[in-house]
Amino acid sequence: MSQESLLSELNDRSREVFRRVVETYLQTGEPVGSRTLTRALSERLSAATVRNVMQDLEFMGLLDSPHISAGRLPSQMGLRLFVDGMMEIDAVAPTDRAAIEQTLGNDDPDTGLLLDRVSTALSSITHGASLVLMPKHEAPIRHIEFVSLAPDRALVVLVFADGHVENRIFTPPPGQTPSSMREAGNFLNAMAEGRTLAELRSNLSRQITERRRELDVLAAELVESGLALWNGETTDPRLIVRGRANLLDSEAADLDRIRVLFDDLERKRDIVEFLELTEKGEGVRIFIGSENKLFSLSGSALVVSPYMNADRKIVGAVGVIGPTRLNYGRIVPIVDYTAQLVGRVLSGRKG
């Protein structure tokens, strides 16, 4: 069931009970009992009524009960629903803002030292472990490899010509398999020498355009002979062939050529999408528990945000790792503000 469906199934009473359970858990880290909730709810309800609502929420998978007699905790799915659909984001407190700005006010030309100070400040402010990824490398690629971590999560390993190595996490196109990822890596490695990621993507896009032109010409010839219908205006073109038995040898050869071009286009489009996803950055992201394959420790969460250079290109990221009961409403804007500030400072530097 989607998050929208789950939220729509919650009436005002169950929504408030759920929100109070999550907020109390995030503050205390302890299971929340029905008697505790009755004192906090805006609507006067008996402990028995609150228990029934909590049981319904548990049946929906939004709450867990560590022991039969204990209170309830939000499940991983419940935390995700709360973070995505119900959480209120705080403004960055002036003291936190000042502490972050102070680390970046130094004119130290060493980017590594600057980001080390940012990491220390983030850890101190949030009381969590900080994560800072250095600006992305722009040297030519020597080797590229895609590794499937989960159906919706993959790792790309980039080895640059100067020996630098980077690992990046991305969401692969739907339906990709470990073997298709290996094939994509092999294809890219065959043409990667001396090219950056952006140059690789540009080269592939040019090949796709050339193949589309060739496909359009061949298909047009079959259409003119009345043997086919062609819809080549879409990103997913279709060729409908009529009366295959009436095809002449030359037309059958054209049809085989069209099939090869279709296959080639499909593969190259997939690989371009891999490259775009590899380069693409996203806003603040929250990974809870097993959602994050790099930090899938029981009860852990990661809040991470990319930062950009002067060309508005994602070059690195900052984040905080902590328990699932992080104060997300406070941590998310701190991470976001830090990422924006780092981007502005690095954009103002030469070289």
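[next item in queue]
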Amino acid sequence: MKIATYNVNGINGRLPVLLKWLQESKPDIVCLQELKAPQERFPIKEINEAGYQAIWNGQKSWNGVAILAKDLEIVEVQRSLPGDSEDVQSRYIEAIIDKMVICCLYLPNGNPYPGPKFDYKLNWIKRFKKRTNELIKMELPAILIGDFNIIPTPLDVHKPERWENDALYRTEVRKAYQDLLKKGWLDSIRTLYPDEKIYTFWDYLYKAYDRDAGIRLDHILLSPYLISSLKSGGVDKYVRGWEKSSDHAPTWIELDK
């Protein structure tokens, strides 16, 4: 089973890119972030024609998350992260697919640091960790997947010394990511490629993609129940080079199930 995550950076504007990648890559489950479209403008007709069912939580102008599945039933669990009833940002959606809990997330960026946006990011992470701890305690086959907006280690960023005070790389968020791993979650891509330079995002500016000056923000974390099922994975970096592509590239794994 192939499971992928892709920050599309505007699903309607980049729909041809998404559909082309779906046709070529043929993932069974796909989590999307940054739909940048209100609920009623999600292109469900085109997604269905591509062979996928979907659930989504849209939002005008920014944010927005979705889960797509091919020939598999999607049972929605929740479409917001518990813990703050006043948080209206569309950043989380959770479903059960093929007896797995799929937690699709678009974690806040947090910049500029310091400031209220960084404080919001830390609070969001705190709520997220509470939910992930519940999943661990229930011993469920679960996947945390999406754009974490966290650069976990110096290996995951071009010239890390330039990022020390960026909200993506601050000590606080890197520690939070390591806390997830200590609880038993497995960073699937880093496990498969422990020493390799792997990026999932390249800025549109300064010819970052041409220079491979990227960062790794998009992660797929497996609960202990699924670790032994991990077969392979990677980043479809070439998609970032397509015309009118997102600044992220799709990241995927294959599970033996």
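[queue empty]
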